[in-house]
Amino acid sequence: MSSLADGVDAALELSIFGSFTRVGSALRRKLEHWTALEGRTMTDRVVVMSGGTSGLGLEAARSFASMGATVEIIARNEAKAEATCAELRRSSGNERVSFVVADTGDLAALRRAAADLLRRHPAIHVLIHNAGALDDARQTSPEGIELTVASQVVGPFLLTGLLLPALKAAAPSRVLWVSSGGMYSEPLSVDRLEMSADDYDGTTAYARAKRAQVTLVELWAKKLEADRIFVHAMHPGWADTPGVARSLPTFRRLVGPLLRTPRDGADTLVWLAVDDGAPLTQSGLFWLDRRARPLHRLSSTRRSDTPEERERLWRWAVEKSGYSPA
Predict the structure, then answer these.
(1) What are 75's strand-pairing partners?
(2) Which residues pair with 48 in a beta bridge?
(3) Mind telling me the catalytic residues?
(4) DSSP labels for 215-266?
(5) What is the pLDDT of residues 195-228, one digit of tens each?
(6) Which pTM does this prediction carry?
(7) Which of 62, 130, 216, 247 could form a disulfide with 178 if both were Cys (CB 3.0 to 4.6 A apart)?
(8) What is the spatial distance between Cα 108 and Cα 307, in angstroms, rounded to a whole number?
């Protein structure tokens, strides 16, 4: 990177507002001369992604389909998934776009979906954990786990484990988690991960789940290194998606035109999935705008990130999911 690009990037990082909005992605794209993703080919790759029927996920699915990939969307609404896949097949001319029905917070449904995917695809090249929502009211999964944690931490942990045979068969393969800069505000704490009904706050629950995600990314990366499965998390920035409109209407109104488009928000996710350079050089990183970023901005969250707490999180995920990787 040029010294000018490095300097501008560092200045943007100091200003969260500048870094996370469309200002950051526009400046970085121009100064760092991002290679265009259009025209790349993925005809020999299978991509499995949750949350692909709207927002960032839909934009990413559209890109993968246009590149010729075999795309499998994991969705909880069958009718919406069917309509989305039909539209993607029409717009891309790629008939290899399909779906399986499962809510990522429903562990039994995920087990059925994983079995179906393994029957259809002995090799999976990219697994993307994108589904996630910020809800004001506390809910629980069918297994009794607080739903934010179930759908964004436990479910993806289980699905990663269940699909390992196909990911190993496709190596070098990738497991990508769509996280959030919201995790910067929360320390790693297993005891505080599942919020009770008395103290539940949707924004806090979401941020804690995202902190757990990026920690699990690092842990998975170490465990899967010998299998040549590369694991990364990414932050899309502040993008104008249906989820933001539903969950954060005041924020959306205030930031308004500075929000990124869904396509801009999905850029780094698509790049991590298709590029055979930097994403396959090192594993376990957290990305924003095609650059690896630090996991901590506050000393309080850095202090919480101990080997003991990391090990507790792994054991907790194994216990909650009922899956223990060999």
Answers:
(1) 101
(2) 72, 127
(3) 206
(4) HHHHHHHHHTGGGTEEEEEE---SB--HHHHHH-HHHHHHHGGGSBPHHHHH
(5) 999 999 999 999 999 999 999 999 999 999 999 9
(6) 0.95
(7) 130
(8) 31
